[in-house]
Every structure is written in C-alpha cells, then in structure tokens.
Design a protein that fits this description.
Length: about 220
C-alpha cells in the first residue's frame, strides 16, 4: 500500500450499543387478510416518584406507603422433629443437648397428639337376621335374581328393617322406569357389532372314516 493509498483508506468505526427491542405484530386488514411484521417496541417508562428504576424503586415505594403495604414472608412455626433425641446426640455441647431435648419435650407436652375417633359402624347383616332364608331363596333360582315380590316376603321373614324394604322397593321401581332407557344405551354401544350378541358356533367334529385294507 502506497502512502497516498494509506491516506485515502478510512478505518471503519465499530458501533457499540444494545439492540433495539422489537415485537412481532399482526395486523388484520378490513378485507380479512393479515399482515405480520417486526416493529420497534416502545419503551414503557417506569413512573416512580423516588426516581429509582427497577425492583429497588418498587421496594422504596412500598416502604413510603407504610406498614400496611409491606409484604413479609409468613412466619414458620417451629415444631420438633420426630427423632429429636437422635438429633440431640449429635449436638456439640451437653448443655445444648439438654436444652434442645427439654424444648422438644415441652412442645410435645403442650401439643398432644389428637386421639383418633372411630365412627360407629353398623353391620351389613345383623345377628338377629336369618341368613339361611335368603341363601335358600337364591339357591332356588340357581343364583339368579329372584322375583321382587318373593324377595320382599323373604326379607321381611328374615328380619330386615322397614328402611331396607323401602330402599329395595325404590331401587326396583327405578330399574323398571329406566329399563327402556338403559336398553337403548346398550343398543347404541353394541349395535355396531351385531355378531357380538350371537352365540359362538360350535366347531363341527371331524369324522374319520375307516380305511379298508387291500388284500
């Protein structure tokens, strides 16, 4: 490079600075079409009376507002660990061990464990009811559901209370009223596969014919 060329050469200057923040915006036109592009995002000025920006300024504003606007973390209530005696063995001094154990025992004495109260349960089959009558009824119909009137007679003879009889009658009445609705629901589910309701054909037994030997 000659001296004349060196004087004509201009060294480029590097631009230093932060990139301009941009945001992706979609515009819906009157004819229904959409056009999307990147535009420069306008900075949102932080209006803080104290002149400090960021989180520090927010904290200063809250402090100026007063005690009612300051949010403090909730205080955690101290509770002794289950194995406090094991923890006390690993403390450095004997005095601190005794004080720690005394503190834990004092807290446990002031907060006793709640006693579990078991709810009274009523047996499904009271001892004064005759189970053999009910079992004989279902054996009579080979495990199928016996007729309703006959069931009610056996329940009364076996010693079932009136509340049980009323509940069984109400359930039987509801089943009869909703039988058509339930059947329609079953048909909608299984109607797509009519072959599923047909019995599976039994395979035909192969008959092996005896072969006569040639003499």
């Amino acid at each position: 490079m000659t001296p004349a060329q060196a004087t004509m050469f201009k060294r480029p200057t590097l631009k230093r600075g932060f990139l301009v923040p941009k945001q992706f915006v979609t515009e819906i036109r009157p004819n229904g079409t959409m056009a999307s592009t990147w535009i420069e995002k306008e900075p949102t000025p932080a209006i803080i009376p104290n002149g400090t920006f960021g989180r520090v300024g927010e904290i200063v504003d809250l402090m100026r507002k007063g005690e009612a606007f300051i949010i403090r973390p909730a205080k955690t209530i101290w509770t002794p660990p289950i194995d406090y005696e094991f923890v006390a063995k690993h403390l450095p001094e004997e005095e601190s061990r005794a004080a720690y154990v005394a503190k834990c025992e004092e807290w446990l004495a002031a907060h006793p464990k709640p006693v579990a109260v078991q709810a009274p349960t009523t047996p499904l089959m009271a001892p004064d009811r005759d189970r053999q009558l009910v079992q004989a009824l279902f054996k009579k119909y080979s495990g199928a559901v016996p007729p309703f009137k006959e069931r009610i007679k056996v329940y009364k003879a076996a010693g079932y209370p009136e509340a049980f009889i009323i509940k069984a009658s109400e359930r039987h009445r509801k089943l009869i009223e909703t039988s058509e609705e339930r059947q329609n629901a079953i048909d909608k589910i299984f109607g797509k596969w009519p072959s599923a309701s047909k019995p599976i054909p039994k395979p035909k037994a192969k008959v092996i014919k005896a072969v006569k030997k040639r003499t």
